[in-house]
Amino acid sequence: MISMNQIIVFRYGHRLERDKRITTHCALVGRAFSAEKMIYCGQEDPNIQKNVEGINKRFGGNFAVEYVKNWQKKLEELKKEYTIVHLTMYGLELNDFISENNKKKSTGNICIVVGSEKVPPFVYQIADYNVSVTNQPHSEVAALAICLDRLNPDYLKKSFVDKHFKNGLLCIKPNNKGKTVLPNK
Amino acid sequence: MISMNQIIVFRYGHRLERDKRITTHCALVGRAFSAEKMIYCGQEDPNIQKNVEGINKRFGGNFAVEYVKNWQKKLEELKKEYTIVHLTMYGLELNDFISENNKKKSTGNICIVVGSEKVPPFVYQIADYNVSVTNQPHSEVAALAICLDRLNPDYLKKSFVDKHFKNGLLCIKPNNKGKTVLPNK
Fold this sequence. Notes:
2 copies of one chain form a homodimer.
Chain A (H helix, E strand, L loop, with lengths): L6 E8 L5 H13 L4 E6 L3 H14 L4 E4 L3 H9 L2 E12 H10 L5 E6 L6 H6 L2 E4 L7 H12 L18 E3 L8 E3 L2
Parallel strand pairs in A: 1-2, 1-5, 2-3, 4-5, 4-6
Antiparallel strand pairs in A: 7-8
Helix pairs in contact in A: 1-2, 1-6
């Protein structure tokens, strides 16, 4: 069993109107699949943090959202403690990265960068790995989810349902024909 | 080895302004992860089909987008030939569905339903399986991608890069530090 350290999501280039839902989906995927927080740059949007805080309150956990203006400087700082993995359709194959990563005794800290439409060369250069989840255009939300899913060393065995978010008000009991929402004990 | 039959994506309740990017991402995820087409209902939006056709032209394949007005009737028709799998945070665990499905000699045809914010009880009732990709709120785009990824019986071995879309103009060669886009041969 390898140990998992901290994973953070870095969302490059948020655009206020165009990306409001996509960036929120990136944050919620990060939260649901065990990342610690999402850092984003581009246009600042307090609603993203507000939405995520609402979800934390209802469903638990303390997933954080942080805005940075000087994103190059932030990535340079992060690179000292995190392996930078940039998800791009132009990158090397995800499976190769995952196998290499899972051979290590510790995965270390990982910062997964997902971009909006146009990601500058700086990101490709600073990344330790530029990784593709298919070489087809699709969705940064999907790419992020699949990368986080496969980074989990137990992902074939692990029950998603076991995942425990503390301090939430609500808890969902799996149901094949409707919705069962219970107060969290 | 089980045989894979047709998979289609059914996007419930498209809202013209709010969902335009999310629904397009659903279509592109369907395309990249081997579904045949996406059917959607709600507000009709010709841009979704236009965007997907542009991607098909450049990167190949013939993923189709179809709008239906009477979605209940369409789901009833589909149920005759497809197993209806509705992805919802309230559903039973994905892994249980996947293990059950992979025991079969043939997976048959599968219609994966993803909703927008509020999905009516009809969908929960008509679905053969209501399945959760975590019981946490996140993203229909992510849930769809993970379900399609795990439905692929070869998903641990299969190279995403091998995936071949015929008739595209362009083809991407995986690169660890930049973009390599070649004419498709």
